[in-house]
Here is the input.
Amino acid sequence: MPQDLPTTSPTAFGLDSFADLLPARDPILGEDPGSFGTFHAAMMAALGPATPYECVIAENLVAIEWELAQHRRMRDAGLRDIIRKAISKAVVRQKDAEHDAALDEAWERHEEAGGDEDDWEPTQFDRDAAEADGEDLAARAMSRDPGKQARAYEEVSALGMDPVEIMGEAYRSHDRSVTHHDGKLRELEGRRREVKRDFDALQRARPVEATVIEP
Here is the structure.
């Protein structure tokens, strides 16, 4: 049975909230602007810390959850970059093959017209344009528009590539843009379980008169 212990108001220390004891968190480039404030408010409302120490542990838990979300975003960005490069390379290979085939046909017509190597002026492969086409297809393949994404999937399949296999290769990659964040995710998930266990224990030992501290 919890003890009926007195609680101290943060106003006794000149604070509006015990959360004011903790330093304000500055944004980090790459985060969605304003997203942490909304995330923090929602998480603190859900956790409902009722004592100063609960507030500190709750802040720690929110920070871990936020870091987990950011590492997932960074890992997924690494996966998308690997996929983007794979699709772009495939498009460049296809465009290069098409250019070679067109050159062969042009040479045959040139010879049939009585031409030879001295007056042969082959067209050069436009690698920049091919790479731009590849980047465009990759962007559409990862579009948030389902219709645009589905059409891009068909184009990727026409290149002889299976979209699921491309994704699988990205997940199996040893690129640090993926493996580093996967490792951090496992580490943070372990820390989250430990901190949540501590927080739950504090809640079970709450004084009867405790009230939720506003974040």
Q: What stands out?
A: Residues 10-22+33-204 form one domain.
